[in-house]
Amino acid sequence: MYKIIGGDGQTYGPVTAETIREWIASRRATSNTQVQAEGSTEWKKLGELAEFKDALPSVPSVSATQVPPQIQGFEGTRPSGTMPGAPTSGLAVTSLVLGVIGCTALVGLVLGIIALVRINKSQGRLGGRGLAIAGICVSAVMLVFGLPVLAGMMLPALAKAKQRAQAINCMSNLRQLGVAARTYAQSSGDRLPSATNWCDVLQPHVNRQNVFYCPAEKSQLCGYGYNAALSGLVVSEVNPLTVMFFEIPGGWNVSGGPEQMLQERRHGTSLNVVFADGSAHQMTLSALQNLRWDP
Fold first, then answer.
1. Which of 1, 9, 123, 218 has CB 3.0 to 4.6 Å from 14, enough for a Cys bridge?
2. Residue 96: how many CB atoms within 10 A of its CB?
3. What CA–CA distance (Å, rounded) separates 191 from 182?
4. pLDDT over 80 (residue 189)
5. Distance CA 24, CA 4 (A)
6. Are 165 and 127 in contact (CB under 8 A)?
């Protein structure tokens, strides 16, 4: 077994004589390379050891300072390849994986650059240069082409999910208005609000002001209307399936009948209503024809 001092001043080994012969063949070690045999404290030039003379060139060795960087090994400042047994950079592997995933391509690009810098500075003690370059290239391609395509595929789904969430919030608002109307009636002789000022009188009976506004309504007006036929009626005398609140284009204290209903749907092909019994429903266009407006 032997130890060798590389051109970077670092000590490598112990390695076998066969390994040293491989380094000589690849010109990563020359006759001037300092070597120490196992059990010895003396450092000698590789050319002074008889067991390696047959592996060394018969012509005089080229000075380490004259060897082109691309073929220098231990004797140069930058190795031409990775040392045998050198570990592969984990950052290089991670960079390639993140680049392939796509949505993490930016992180993959950064890690690939860091990995490549560290590998180049390792003097051959760290492998994975090809993986790092691949990670950089794949990540860059995904950033330029992959992410816009992925975003284009996701936008319709996100828009649909947003519309669904707004429809659910709208139904929740209508349900709370129905509860507020019945709460108002309990303190008003069991009579429902008047059609002329129903928004005003229900304000003290709602948990938050936002229940008057549909989340899909762009204006700052109340997004719901009140069935004028219920104005001031006794709750017990109203058919539970009668429409109480429904969606409108926007206003305040708006009341009326089906003529006031929203024409341009905010939630796809359906429209939300709440009945006198306090239940909220999402009605299809065909079902709207069967709504009960007369108490």
1. 1
2. 25
3. 8
4. yes
5. 12
6. no
**So what's the pLDDT on residue 152?**
66
Phi, psi of 156 (to 5 degrees): -60, -40
DSSP 8-state class, residue 168: H
From the list 112, 82, 117, 86, the residue with the least C-alpha distance to 97 is: 112
Cα 102 to Cα 148: distance, rounded to the nearest angstrom: 10
- Provide the sign of the torsion angle of the four alpha carbons 152, 153, 158, 161, taken in this order: positive
Return the pLDDT at 183.
94
The distance of Cα 158 from the centroid of its chain, to the nearest Å, equals: 14
Tokens, residue 45 = 């030039």
Predicted pLDDT of residue 98: 85
Lowest mean pLDDT among 121-125, 188-192, 203-207: 121-125
Q: Could you give phi then psi for residue 50, rounded to 5 degrees?
A: -60, -35
Please name the residue that has the structure tokens 């040392």. 83
Q: Is the CB of residue 154 less than 8 Å from the CB of residue 113?
A: no
The amino acid that residue 222 corresponds to is: C
Residue 2: is its pLDDT beyond 80? yes
CB 223 within 8 A of CB 250: yes
